[in-house]
Design a protein that fits this description.
This protein has 157 residues and is an alpha/beta fold. Helix content is 25%, strand content 25%. β6 and β7 form a beta hairpin. The longest helix is centred in the N-terminal third of the chain and has 14 residues.
């Protein structure tokens, strides 16, 4: 599977990239946000959630302690953080089956820890911290998430 790679040089650029990704996300979608602490997962989620018209960026925070944040009045977006979860059984106890069977977009931080839980057609976005404000962001899966969103505009970021 090929990938698109883009670099962002500020929080604002990372949020804007999230908005662009949102324009092309299929519904439903499972998006794994993969990266170390501080790599920009929640910042990218802010842009995706705003791009889906579910909330403004300042309303989005990491669901590290609450585990799941729900956004949107019509189309639903679930921002999930599995950092503090130890087993797949714990993830399933959160009601994951119901979320996966909904018409929602699931943005999952630390989901790579439980690869057996996710559909094959998931989107994986890997974020790497390069410098103070620079991130390298690699997008794999769902042609809609890549074509026309990152490839056509990556030189502008």
């Amino acid at each position: 599977m090929s990938a698109s790679v883009v670099r962002t040089r500020s929080e604002e650029e990372t949020i804007e990239l999230g908005r662009r990704i949102a324009e092309r996300l299929p519904r439903p979608a499972v998006v794994l946000l993969i990266g170390e602490l501080g790599s920009g997962k929640t910042t990218l989620a802010k842009g995706i959630i705003q791009g889906l018209a579910a909330a403004d960026p300042e309303e989005v925070s990491s669901p590290t302690y609450t585990l799941i944040h729900e956004f949107g009045d019509g189309a639903r977006v679930y921002h999930i953080d599995l950092y503090r979860i130890d087993s797949a059984a714990e993830v399933l106890a959160l009601g994951l089956d119901d979320l996966l069977n909904s018409n929602a977009v699931l943005l999952v931080e630390w989901g790579e820890r439980f690869p057996q839980l996710w559909p094959e057609d998931r989107i994986e976005i890997r974020l790497r911290w390069l410098e103070e404000n620079t991130r390298e962001i690699e997008i794999r899966g769902a042609e809609e998430a890549r074509h026309g969103t990152v490839r056509d505009r990556e030189q502008r970021l």
